[in-house]
């Protein structure tokens, strides 16, 4: 599947893997890819910026979501916040949610008659529909998935 990815898209998936590794995550999740896409040098990054988001805000929302999730199962926030993330020495696997998002991204590209899968397709794949974790992160950022999808489609229409 990765042979159809444009350079920027491959780079974004590699950065998502790095984000997950740095955070000590067991698996690469859709929110890691959203963070990796938050670079305004490509269509998805420009749409994310147009939504008023940047990498720092997304990273903070991911961390807050993790703290809230652990608190829900009885781990106090003080324990989570005082325990630094331990980067993984190995590569985390890809979650079912990220695999689904990548498949959706490929479907987006094919449906539009495009041979190469760009970052815009990755973002649309993440949002169709957003996985639970990504949905919570977007809610923390006060961004509706449909609005972000509309912004990336505007970027696609401008052909920048």
Give the terminus-to-terminus CA distance. 25 Å
* Residue-averaged pLDDT: 92
CATH class: Mainly Alpha
* Share of helical residues: 55-70%
List keywords for this structure.
160 residues; mainly alpha; Double Clp-N motif; 9 helices; globular
How would you describe what is shown here?
With about 160 residues, this protein is an all-alpha fold. It has a single domain (about 1-160), classed as Orthogonal Bundle (Double Clp-N motif), CATH 1.10.1780.10. Helices cover about 65% and strands about 0% of the residues. Strands 1-2 form a two-stranded parallel ribbon. Helix 2 runs antiparallel to helix 4. The longest helix is centred in the middle third of the chain and has 18 residues, at about 55-70. It is globular and about 50 Å long. The model has no long low-confidence stretch (mean pLDDT about 90).
Entry summary:
This protein has 160 residues and is mainly alpha-helical.
Helices, strands, pairings?
Blueprint: H1 7-23, E1 27-28, H2 30-37, H3 43-50, H4 55-72, H5 77-82, E2 93-94, H6 96-111, H7 119-126, H8 132-140, H9 145-158
Parallel strand pairs: 1-2
């Amino acid at each position: 599947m990765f042979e159809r990815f444009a350079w920027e898209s491959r780079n974004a998936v590699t950065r998502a893997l790095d984000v997950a590794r740095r955070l000590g995550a067991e698996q690469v999740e859709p929110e890691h890819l959203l963070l990796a896409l938050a670079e305004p040098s490509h269509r998805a990054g420009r749409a994310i910026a147009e939504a008023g988001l940047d990498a720092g805000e997304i990273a903070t929302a991911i961390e807050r979501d993790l703290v809230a999730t652990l608190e829900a199962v009885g781990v106090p926030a003080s324990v989570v916040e005082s325990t630094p993330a331990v980067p993984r020495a190995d590569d985390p696997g890809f979650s079912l949610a990220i695999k689904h998002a990548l498949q959706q991204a490929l479907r987006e590209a094919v449906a539009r008659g495009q041979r190469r899968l760009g970052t815009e397709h990755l973002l649309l794949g993440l949002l169709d529909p957003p996985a639970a974790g990504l949905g919570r992160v977007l809610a923390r950022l006060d961004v509706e998935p449909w609005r972000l999808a509309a912004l990336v489609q505007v970027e696609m229409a401008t052909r920048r």
